[in-house]
Design brief:
binds zinc ion; 8-stranded mixed β-sheet; 17 helices; 7-stranded mixed β-sheet; alpha/beta; globular
Length: 550
């Protein structure tokens, strides 16, 4: 690809598919701007993986021309990968005070805080990076300070929406800045790169104020312990829950590291000023059940979260049972239905009453439904529309709506390089895309051998055989077999397989047994046959061969 092309192009490296890891790139006259750097969760499609991040290889190779990374808001799918990928990008990072406060905690945990040039831009602020002149536009969303980016270039103005909604009363922070959006529309918008999450939902996403009004009435009539789970980063919701607790005479305690971090980041930025500091888990122990409200992390059924552990009755300090209530003040992200169902089943089994957004006004979405999308098109009047942030049915629904609103839709997949100008927009190239799994404290390619082996072990188990031979290939002693995930260690079948394995190797021709590589391969094939006869499946098979001088 000739990066010296005089043009304006957009390239998503993540964010158009089923897993929302946003990593967007803009190129103008050979210089690059990155917008968001988020992570995604493995879910049922990738049971071998907890968390994934996009492969930034394409832009890492061009980081000499990468002017900066702008974070639109503090959600994990927009900033969660910065600490993992920054060493490959090595560029300045720009974020609003709240997103910067959240990011600083992640960079500190990763030991990167001193290295990353993190610059704070005020909501509604300006930033000039090479040929890009960027205006931040305040949008309502389910996290404070979400910003759309009006990106002015010599080729025209792009509106990168980020995540947004229209909310007449967002409770925390201002409404979406419709006056600025209209001003941008008057100036002339070449294209909108826009949120498609709720493009299949008719009507309006609803207002955070509705939840704020509903919660005290809901909680007032409850006795026993009340626990609420929501997205930690939803500061408006945390405040609504805390105000509801105050109104009905309950003290608030929080459990979960993500909630602690968000509370600290929020207070640092002046949010939650009207509610008392939350108690810790230990502090909760002294509060009578009828005077306590717990906020627990784990609204998506995350296995190690406070809510999952309470549901499984394995939490060291918090227990819920008969007469207690749990409110799920969140929606279930597609893919997490089973995990959330399991948590809810565990709670129901021990007599806990459940309230969710199916049966009570305890949640509104942070993304625009169709009426809100129509409104932004009416304000911006863009020539072109590039639906992002959604699965294909959401992207196509967004495209249809854009067309009805007078914009020409352009459909992209991750890796498509869309030249927006000069001339008619078209896909001119493709960039390699991929994903890394976060595995402990390292990144492992999703398509590499390690995770292929992990997947195979997950479903087919693993068999390891070991044997010793002398320099002439004579077998020494017994063979050993271990097959975790397939046989119990004491299963006599393991010993029978070991002896079959040993005789199969003993039958190999002598010259072959004298060559390490040939012997290893043949021994592995022999072990595979021994195992295959019993299991009718293909586990990961490995042989440890020790050649001993006697
Ligand atoms: Zn978001």
């Amino acid at each position: 690809m000739n990066t010296n092309d005089a043009d304006l192009a957009f390239l998503p490296l993540g964010g158009t598919g089923e897993i929302g890891m946003n990593l967007n790139l803009y190129r103008c006259n050979g210089q690059w701007l990155a917008v968001d750097c988020g992570l995604g969760f493995g879910g049922p499609e990738h049971p071998e993986v907890d968390v994934m991040v996009p492969d930034p290889g394409f832009i890492a190779e061009r980081r000499g021309d990468l002017l900066g990374l702008i974070i639109t808001h503090a959600h994990e799918d927009h900033l969660g990968a910065v600490a993992w990928l920054w060493r490959q990008l090595k560029c300045p990072v720009y974020a609003t005070p709240f997103a910067a406060a959240v990011l600083r905690r992640k960079l500190t945990e990763a030991g990167l805080l001193a290295e990353v040039p993190l610059h704070v831009v005020q909501p509604g602020g300006h930033l000039a990076l090479g040929p890009f002149d960027i205006e931040f536009v305040g949008m309502a969303h389910s996290v404070p300070e979400a910003q759309a980016l009006a990106i002015r270039t010599p080729y025209g103005l792009i509106l990168h929406s980020g995540d947004w909604k229209l909310d007449p009363d967002p409770v925390v922070g201002p409404q979406t800045d419709e006056a600025t959006l209209k001003r941008l529309g008057d100036e002339g918008v070449l294209a909108i790169i826009g949120d498609s999450t709720n493009a299949t939902v008719e009507g309006h996403s609803g207002s955070e104020a509705e939840v704020r009004r509903a919660l005290p009435e809901l909680i007032r009539h409850l006795s026993g312990r009340v626990a609420v789970t929501c997205f930690a980063s939803n500061v408006a919701r945390l405040e609504s829950i805390a105000l509801a607790a105050k109104a009905v005479g309950r003290e608030v305690a929080v459990a979960g590291r993500s909630l602690r971090n968000i509370e600290a980041a929020a207070r640092e930025c002046g949010y939650l000023a009207d509610v008392p500091h939350f108690l810790s888990e230990d502090g909760a122990a002294d509060v009578p059940d009828d005077n306590l409200l717990l906020i627990l992390s784990g609204s998506q059924g995350e296995a190690r979260s406070a809510m999952s552990r309470v549901a499984a009755d394995t939490h060291p300090r918090i227990a819920l049972g008969e007469g207690d209530t749990v409110i799920f003040s969140s929606r279930v992200i597609p893919g997490n239905e089973r995990a959330v169902g399991l948590v809810q089943d565990n709670l129901a089994r021990r007599g806990v009453r459940l309230m969710t957004d199916d049966d009570h006004m305890v949640h509104v979405s942070g993304h625009p439904a169709r009426d809100e999308l129509r409104r932004i098109y009416a304000l911006l009047r863009p020539q072109w529309s590039v639906p992002v942030h959604g699965e294909w049915r959401h992207l196509t629904a967004h495209a249809d709506l854009a067309r009805e609103a007078g914009a020409k839709p352009l459909m992209l997949e991750d890796g498509d390089v869309l030249r927006l100008a000069p001339g008619t927009p078209q896909i001119v190239d493709s960039a390699p895309v991929g994903r890394f799994a976060v595995d402990g404290n390292r990144l492992v390619p999703m398509t590499g051998g390690v995770l292929a082996a992990r997947r195979r072990m997950l479903f087919n188990g693993v068999v390891v055989g070991s044997l010793a031979v002398d320099e002439d290939g004579r077998l020494l002693g017994e063979a050993r077999i271990s097959a975790p995930g397939l046989f119990e260690p004491e299963d006599p079948e393991t010993a029978r397989m070991a002896s079959e394995f040993l005789s199969a190797v003993a039958d190999l021709p002598v010259p072959l047994r004298q060559d390490d590589f040939a012997l290893g391969e043949s021994a592995r094939a022999a072990l595979r046959r021994v195992v295959g006869r019993r299991l009718q499946k293909r586990p990961l098979v490995d042989v440890h061969l020790m050649r001993v001088a006697v």
